[in-house]
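#lab-general

N.A. 3:47 PM
ok so I finally got the sequence cleaned up, no stray characters, all 733 residues accounted for. can someone with queue access submit it? mine expired

B.Y. 3:52 PM
send it over

N.A. 3:53 PM
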Amino acid sequence: MKKGNLDLDSIRMEDVTKHPEVWEKVVRKLRARQMPPMEKPRPEESTYEKIVARLSDALDRAAAQHPDPGRTETLRRLNRTEYENVIRDLLALEIDASELLPKDDASRGFDNVTVGNLSPTLLDRYITAAQKISRLAVGAPRRSPGGDTFRVRADLTQEERVEGLPVGTRGGALIPYTFPQDGQYEIQVRLTRDRNEEIEGLHQPHELELLLDRERVKLFTVTPPQGHKNYDIVDANLKARFPVTAGPHQIGVTFLKNPSALLETKRQPYQAHFNLHRHPRIGPAIYQVSINGPYGAKGPGATPSRRRIFVCQPTKPDEEEPCAARILTTLMRRAYRRPVTEADLRKPMEFYRKARTEESFEAGIETALSAVLASPEFLFRVEQDPAGVAPHTAYRISDLELASRISFFLWSSIPDDELLDTAIRGELHKPRVLEKRVRRMLADGRSRNLVNNFAEQWLYLRNLDLLTPDLRLFPDFDDNLRQAFRKETELFFESVMREDRSVLDLLKANYTYLNERLAKHYGIPNVYGSRFRRVALANDSERGGLLRQGSVLMVTSYATRTSPVIRGKWILENILGTPPPPPLPNVPALKDNTVSATLSVRERLAEHRSNSVCASCHNLMDPVGFSLENFDAVGRWRTVEDGQPIDVSGGLPDGGKFTGVSGLEQGLLHRPEVFVGTLTEKLLTFALGRGVETYDAPAIRKVVRQAKGDDFRFTSIILGIVNSTPFIMRNSL
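B.Y. 4:20 PM
back already:
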């Protein structure tokens, strides 16, 4: 009998290892208890365990005797995030790569997977970026003053202090900015207006402060227009010109905060204030900040980028060429992630000589640097089969390739000198050396990449900026809350990583991170101010692990209501690792407008489950999602909906029944290897830049087994991945 594209009758009498791709699918289904279907008779739990163990052991023994590490792409382009991080580490220069390069397409959940090609249009963008970056890093003079404008999100409430700005201020923006040269710069501020072109919230004088690196540059008084409504004159003079040294600085624009007063309303006042008609601003707000200059430029200054680039300075003409070669060799060794040869140096030196002849020594370095940043050796990570390897053979990758794999996994950036030196000496593959280097890199601040790159994609946090709940139904939502959702989850994930906690704490924890805005949203008292801090939670708290956090709950909801289907699918895919198949093309969508509005979401979804075509998937997804119905579409706790008690009874594909989010967490933690295996799969996908296939399953099981002995600590999983067959080996063509 063949079902679900699996025909087990035809192979059940043969050796398991002859059809590993089929039996790995069976193991995955059995481990998730999705086989046989819930409506069919099922074996006891002990029988499940024995069958899974027997199949897994046979497959693992075969994999150990004949390793199949799969094959990563020979050429993998730096994606946008990696490019930004590499420029930071190579040139000590912070850039916003989203202004220079297009967004990368995601595949298998991550945007570092489909990066094997480089279209002519994208190549042009990389060349333009290389020219801009080299000019900024060297501090080349501009033909005329330039400028940049930074706009504040329209739905940002500006009534409380912005992180990084002085205490006693409210609203505004803190803008990190790299000034290209020493000189005079002009900062201009424009205030937010309503649809009538009147400045919102300006009912009395307000003081606006302009800061450079937290030091006041100028204090403005913003006053409502008297006797007329010409608001253009109000902020026309909100500009100042002052000297700034070249390099990275922070520009702050903010209002001095008046004492807070409780608004007199019959109900608790909304925290959101950004919309004239629903929740108007209490005071004026910043719309945009423009930075223009330099005027009267006085030179490139002593910036971190110049210190990183100019490892020597020629004092006479005959020293220039050797110095240029030394500068470029040092940069190229880091940029190309390997030792540099004479052949590598030839072309950049040609660019240097041409520009040096026409302009100056520094112009030559700038041009050569631009050529390096546009080189395929920089833009692509290259993994080539070594000479003499037989076709279709598993081989161990070189130490230099291993160094790049580790650094781009943990940092999404290039290896630093210590890691590169270890690889060049041929010592990185030694187990003790490898473990020491990995632990050092995890302790480095750059490992936060696993938070804001890996975790943000795994947990869909990047979708937060794309979502805005219906403000008629959720009038107290604003960008402040959106960013608080993101910050809570980032800090929470980072705490598990930095403290080397068990990754099971991601599902069940007795703490979280809150500021006053988020605490009020959650109904947690005694948290004041805009600063995020760790908050211990009571045993009966509605908050804690990932499944109780506003970020996850919001990205798995619609703008108008919750979605048990999306939430259930998210858990099946990202927590259990068994995503349901995509819906068939002829299956109709749930029609909200044809179902009585008085029915609960559970009753509305019964329409789908009554259709036999839909039921097979919805019977898996819906019960999981129903258990989270105590949380609305913006993550608030509730016990009733439209005056009716909410039914939060649910179930998992293993047949377990429970009530609410606590029951869901207990069900997931009952067999922790399932979640840890899913997390390992996600991390391995991110680490390799390719999808996980059935032949990777033995390596994943080995990582999980070894981590279990260390209480599934975060570092044990990372070390397991770095030592795994798919990570340290590769198949030849």
